[in-house]
Amino acid sequence: MGPDVPLLNEYKQEFFWKRFPQTVLGGPRFKLGYCAPPYVYVNQAVLFLTPWLFGGIGTLLCQLQLLQELHAAVLSGMLMFTAAAGVQALAFYAARKSGTVERLGAPNILVDEEEVEFTNCVSPETLRFIAPGKRFGLNVVLHTIISGVLCGFGTWYVFLGRLTSLYGSIGVSLVVFVLSWVTLCIAEYSLIVNTATETATFQAQDTYEITPLTRPLYIFIFIAVDLADRFSNPVPELQLACQTLHVLFLFLPLLWALGALPPLDALLFWGMEQILVFGMGGSPMSSNVRLLLMFAVSTGITVCNYFIPSALGVVLFSVTTGFLLSLDLSQVGSLSKSPREAFRVHGLHDGGLPPFVPTSFGWNLGCREIALYVTLLLVATAEAGLLHQFFGSTQSQNLVSGHQSHVSYLLLILFFLCWALREMQGAYVCGGMFLNPLYPKGTSNVQTFKEKNRGLYLAAAIRRALLYFVSPFAMIAFLSMDKSLLSLHTVSISVGLTRAFRVVWQSSEDALLQMVVVVLGRLAAGGHLLPGWDSLGTGVQLLLVGLLIDRLSQFLAKLKFTLTVLVTSWTEKKQRRQSAGTLLALNTSLWPLVLAVVTLSALLSAPLLPLFTLPIFLVGFPRPQRSWPGPVGTACPCPDSIFYQQMSGSLASALRTAFSRGSLGSLAPGSHFLGRFQDRMVWIMILERGYGYCTVNIKGLELQETSCHTVEARRVDEVFEAAFERPERLGFTQGFNLHWGNALTPCAALAVRAYSDARNVLSGIIDSHENLRKLQDDFMKALIWLLLRYCVQKHRGFLWRGEEVSASGGTKSQSSQFAQTTCNQPFEAVVVESNLGTSFGDWSDEDDLFGPQPPRRTVALVTAEAQPGHSALQIGASLPGSVEMDSLFENMALSALQPLQPLGLSIGMPAVDKSRNTEVLKESSHLNFSCPQSEIFSLPSGWRTAPLLPSRLLSLRPLFPEEWFRFTLGRFGLAVQEETSADMTKALKEDEVLKELHAKVALSCLILVGAESAFTSPSYIYRLYCGDVPWTEGLDWLSSRKELYQLTLQAFRFSFKLLFDQASLGPMESPEELFSTLEEYERDWYIGLVTEKGWHDGVLQEKPFLFSLGHDLTMGTYTGRVLSLQEQLIQVGRLNGEGVRGQWANLSWELLYATNDDEERYSIQAHPFMLRNLTVQAADPPLGYPIYSSAPLHFPCL
User: Pecanex C-terminal domain location, by residue (predicted)?
Assistant: First the structure.
């Protein structure tokens, strides 16, 4: 798409220009898009001005001195309450009438869905259009009462006498009076008559009708300040605030229209988060419930601290509670379980237990963890108590010569050491501007990468010890000897010190930086006292410094994001719209205004919203760091989601190591990271941070890349290549980060266990006659091996288990040294043909054109019907390389497409001569084996009754590989014998009855799947691999023996994998090698289709290898897909968090307010610098569409 794609399509433009005036005015709909009677507009105008009328009556009576101010305000409020009750009664009446009266005539489907037929000025349709009413009766009462209170207090707020006393001018007072009533009318209309859609929308749906309360709430805040000034002693600052707020009151409609003021829910959670972080030393929480609980507990502790009479008691209480609150106490229950269970409860591996479970410190709450935490707490409290008792009261006013001076210098040393050691861990230094010469580059092998990183690992261990075990005690020592502890019983000092003792543990790195800034300020002042600053106390100083550092870092990040949007709107040709020059000139000429917008958004900790991602900057409404109201973990799942789900556990373990080493830089809740591996994109967001733990959310982006996704993915690869694949030695100019302006800054490479996806075109393999001639023999050998293994497993009391049988000999399959014993799931989604019902999907050249057509049923469904408790098979969308193409053939499987044949051949199904039934081989259920051990290898009696003539079986008898049968029988015989006996093994091999039994069953299966002649057609092989077995005589008999059918299909898939491996690596040289290869297939491989549930389960259970056969219709080729589980390097970079928040704020505005859901809209097009398309994908549904999103993952960082 070009850069001049419309921001809004024509329909959305018309919709927007009808909605926006309604938002500005608070709800009146004066622009309808169709003709309406004049009384519709008149009625709305009268209702809009009604509050002004009642307020004017009260103001007039007060000005005439007929009523006092309070009585006049009460009168206005009562009148408004009566009017609001009347409006609600009319709305209720209209709702009942429209619900009982039937409209005559058929509805016109061509009429606009919003058009209303008005009959008269008080008809139910008119009333419902003007005042839709409330959904809940409680809201009817509540909103009516609030409307009366609002009108009364609003009248009092804008009395002319009050305004004249504030500004001393009648003219100014009249202007403020008139415009203030416009604000009040807008709020009253939105509350009572019809609620406008707010540009500041946080929730997708207003379930409980909270939106009508938003505008009155802000008016009540203004009124509260005015009342405080009226009823308190004269305070110049408070009077100045009233004067300012009365002027700002006039601009409330503009702020509402621009969406700068948050809705109630966003305001509540944002305010609690800011107070918790900067007022109480906590961290943003990963959920709203956790935020509410932590806020309540922290508030209670702060209040308790204020009332403790002893300074020593305050110190001990603050140190203890600060340490306990900085731990993730909500996870104590899950951490107390075994490491394996704790790993599962954490949500790190939802699809089954992985082959490895982290056993390092912190993954479960064991004796060593409890001992460490108890020791830290005891040492900290003892240190704080002793230092305060002996040095707190003798602390000098001069920092340079006091007892704190030694600790202050220690803090300076610790800070610079931790900063330097952290900078060494990443790919870039100095804020991402220069390459780190110490970081290994050009390494793709995991082991080599770890070897080169050993020096950095040592430096990381030193940093971790200094940061987590030395710095907290140094900071506690600094606080315990502070002189402000002597004047605790002031609110500010008590709150400041409570926060300071907690943030030491909650965020040690940030607390160390804040204390260093305070120390440097005192050292810079020398022996001089700064009255305004020193009187605040150390706790409040640290609070202000922490707030200043946070806002400054936000300002710098927002400024970088602003410059990126501005510059790339002109330099990037694909982003250069016709209006780019005009917008660039406006931003340049109005740069003080742009800088003010950036500053204001940083001060409010609100996202900087680029409208339509153009260089038009607005202040988005403040919201929590998570940006989204819903719970973490919602996604739009698809079959590709399993790859992210599988790697989430290993990635969490790697992130834990990277966080503790400092490889990803300073961690703060709200930070975003992007990981890249092959065709996979991982989005990582920090949700919560405390002492020794971190909570993150991992999202997986789509694998089927769109054009926009591909453009940005290519740029991501370029950014990572510049950081990780350059030569070791570089000059100064070559070491500069050429992608510094990009939203992505590379940090580190992490070793993660993930699947490597390899796809091969099978031309020359599947169509080679030499290879196909061996397929029949390999099929028989694989089937014999599986039949004998089935007998061994049945003897041991379990079926379909992958318990390893000891064997020797090499293999030539495409695998590595991984070995894992897992359950081998039965093959599902296997299409077979039966004689029941009809189905359109079975049309082919081999169908009977003159009779009923056989339907298609899957073996999975047949099995599920016979086994209660099994859920129906879940079939999702196809993966790349999948054998199902639902988008082209609707519900018909690709495997159902049969090769075309000349007209006149195979028109009907083969006729079945019923007279043959008398000649079918009949056998008794008891067989006379010559060896006692042969009973173990006997097959079920139902498998011996195939409806085939003995002569037909006899003619195929040479195809049975007797030598292979004896070899395999000998190997399995050793596995079931309690004592190894050469004579017993020999007798077992010479048992002719057992051999003939297996020969008959194997040859019957060969015939029933149509493989009695050599395979010659790749399409036939493909169909048979997919389980789409062409009809043959006796196929229904085979499909009814579910276990035998699954063994047969598994044998054919094994044989095709043998063909694939031998064509690539050479033929098998000995029976031992073939036996070992089949063992490896059974143990380490899943061989099937990507659309089967077994493939899904195999990925989640971390099968070392998976193989699938596919068919590319567009190219007309057959493809093989191999997934290999191995440790891979995933490159991870830090994203500009403010850029992400800004784009998400625009996405929320654009979709929830402007309803601009066009898939080709401008704001979703590829942007190589802002990574706009990837950022939109990573948003929470319904606005974004990540295919995987984990629940909040809690893991240790010590």
Answer: 1021-1190
